[in-house]
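ligand=magnesium ion
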Amino acid sequence: MNDILAGLAAALRLIVTLDAELVEISLRSLQVSLTALLIASTIAIPFGTLLAVQRFRFRRSVIAVLNALMGLPPVVVGLIVYLMLSRSGPFGVLGLLFTPTAMIIAQVIIISPLIASITHQAMRELWAEYHDLLISLHATKRQRIATLIWDGRRNLLTAALAGFGRAIGEVGAIMIVGGNIDHATRVLTTAIALETGKGDFALALGLGFVLIALALLINLGIHALSGTEREGRW
Amino acid sequence: MTRVFTLTAALFLSTAAMAEEMRMAVTTSFENSGLADVLLPAIKADLDIDLQLLVVGTGQAIKLGEAGDVDAILVHSKAAETAFVASGHGTHRREIMYNDFVILGPTADPAAIAQDTKVVDAMQRIAAAQPAFVSRGDNSGTHLAELALWKAADLDAAGFGDWYHATGSGMGAALNTAAGLNAYILADRASWLNFGNKADLALLFAGDPMLFNQYAYLPVNPQKQPHVRNDLAMKLEAWLVGPHAKALINGYSINDEPLFVFNATDP
Amino acid sequence: MAGLLPLTLTDAVVRRNGKTLMGPVSLTLGGEGITIIIGPNGSGKTTLLRAMHGLERLSGGAADWALPAHEANIRQAYVFQSPIVLRRTVLANLRFPLDLLGTPRSVANAAAVAWAQRIGLGRALDTQAARLSGGERQKLALARALIREPEVLFLDEPSANLDGRSTREIEALLQQCQAAGTRIIMATHDMGQARRLAADAIFMLSGHIHEKGPAEAFFGASRTPELIAFLNGDIVE
Ligand SMILES: Nc1ncnc2c1ncn2[C@@H]1O[C@H](COP(=O)(O)OP(=O)(O)O)[C@@H](O)[C@H]1O
Ligand SMILES: [Mg+2]
């Protein structure tokens, strides 16, 4: 109990004093996770929708694989990305290991299946509802997907937020590919791991509270933004 | 969204536009000692190098050097270091400083090692009493040092029973585990002094010259990895063995206890 | 402009999971006016309409328009038994078929507003369509089907769940369209409605066309005992 109170106090102190290092790593956390979210959504949302709309031969297998990939262990993703980006790996010449870009790549791989899968679930329902109308109106494949994405945007928001939550809270993969370098690749989660390692539980917990607060704020913010369309339904 | 982008762009640019960057893999024990917080700003001020530290075990540090993912390594495991140079992955090995290992354990000291003067006796007592013992188990320098100590005491850690916990984790995590289990553990003095979660642990044994822990600096061989910044690595080496580093290393203390002894000599 | 009609079904069969839902059906639909399809539940009215519109893949036979399929497709519209409304505003629902065709926004909006007024939803333009009543939704679906000014309009029991007033409004709208030259093919359960609207009629039974003909003959001197029984309100299976 004392440790938790000390953690809360540490979090308060960090926030009230606008601790420069806290601001830096929080911004980097946001930078990495939001960029990863943007890229992953751009790939996964149309893909998940296509899966709902399009019948093709290996559709069931693709969906099964997608659902399995949702449970992809981040550490394994981290390790594979690490080996790919290492100077002795196939993409070594790019010099991306231990940079925020490497962390973004790992997070994109981790959250894309999650976003695609949730998208697929949501879009399947909407597709069942819209199917006859869109076929009757002879909407092209592109138009079908666009219509579903637009009208299902609230569900997609949920998918995106789930992806964001997974990305910003992830530590295993980005520790490996980012290296937790001070002023370069240190983010909230890796900083928490570091402080825990130093036995400084108060600071670790303080950072943890900041992380939770940040995730909450982003969620509330996005919901508030989308909520301005008053008439909508959830 | 645009604001986030400007922000991220600013973050990217700000790191790119600054001083030259060099990467060095260091051991967790070095990082946990807190010495890096003193050295890094001085290096930045004197050399205008942003030294990026990858804090890993000695085993992984050497792997990073072999793969060319860092420009130099600073580790403490002589056998691994000489092998690293012998295989051509490192240009040479330069000793910088040392600190020492200590044996920590429950304040009550059930294995009664506090009375010993030789570390091999202490190790034998522990193996005989079989109290909980936490090992790094991660191929780090500290882990290798621990294995060497068992061996010197004519014991084989591979044959130990349930009381021997090989955690496979960094110094801090292993210390946390030892604190939780109220177990014995071998740690470097610096990590111990900086450790915040001491619980019931106490320093029970120290001082035997066998516990001497030499840190060495090894630049990665640019002939094997042409992209490494060997120029920066050499600049840094010159600084690390120089007078400013000497003053900072010898002057670094926690609770008035000095932690490191500078012992670089001209090659 | 070359006409879309006649539509010719030749031994059209719809099978699903090995079960024949409809057919074989052969039929030619030309001319003008309103064709009414009646028949007991499950007799294949919906399946026939969907097959004609191309929503149901034929397992055998053919359904051919006087124009190539890709041209024919865009000149017809379909109103489903339970109206499908998009999760959008009334205005956006009405505009949607035009949006798909790439109609300029201002033109599409003007047409949508005009239709909204015509169906009495002129003041509900910005309402989410999901909030409309059943009758309003069905009128919305009808207006949305008509906004592309189709040559052929299919309707599947459009007033199945509506009260008298809404039914009357929809029938009035259909009469206007028919007068403007739209060919209407409609399934209904309401014999009064069938008699009011039909120029000719089709009686479906067990997936087949049991009887068909011009309205006077069909509702007057019907030939088969099943149709007589059905028109009398008896149970026909
Ligand atoms: N998706 C389907 N799968 C299997 N059978 C169906 C399906 N849709 C309709 N049917 C069956 O096809 C037959 C004709 O149905 P339908 O055309 O809807 O009749 P109606 O519109 O005259 O009530 C019925 O026996 C019905 O149960
Ligand atoms: Mg029906």
